[in-house]
Amino acid sequence: MIQHADYVLIGGGLAAATAAQTLRREGATGSILLLSEERLPPYQRPPLTKQVLRGKISRDGLFVLSDEALRALSIELRLGARVVALNTAERVVVTEAAGSFSYRRLLIATGASPLSLPGVESGTASIFYLRTLADAERLHRAAEQASSALILGGIWRDNQGENGASIKMRRGSRAR
Prior knowledge:
- It is a single chain.
- By secondary structure, the chain is of the alpha/beta class.
- It has helices at residues 14-25, 51-54, 67-72, 133-145, and strands spanning 2-10, 32-36, 75-79, 83-87, 92-95, 100-108, 148-149, 174-175.
- The strands form two sheets. A six-stranded mixed sheet has the order 3-2-1-6-5-4. The protein has a two-stranded parallel sheet with strand order 7-8.
- β5 and β6 form a beta hairpin.
- The longest helix has 13 residues, at 133-145.
- The N and C termini lie far apart (53 Å).
- 20% of the residues are buried.
């Protein structure tokens, strides 16, 4: 059976959550459904590379919409809802485990994924890709025990001249 939502927003980050809030603030009266592959409510991803890796922010400080805000704005959130198919002609989104949804309007706000190096699998004892909060927490735990680290890609400098991807490592360790 296909369920219906006027607005279906695919993604579990800041963009999808902000879009849902904005729809309500701008007067949208239809049903709003947020589909997130992750099992956590929408959260900010930019702090993963700095505050989470340094241990300066708790996971609760990352979440964008509280349960109360979702209820107040009449936004339905489906966690663990990995989208596996999209039929734009029929206006239907199919998820792996949460069912199928027809929609009037659709937003795909899934963000980017890091490029994988050929033959280098994430999840090994010493290789990490950073995309999700779970990735950042695994990397943070490993970095606290590491004596050195090599960081490839996606690094920027903030306005204080510090690397965007700063890692809190044990004392005397170095990141290259």
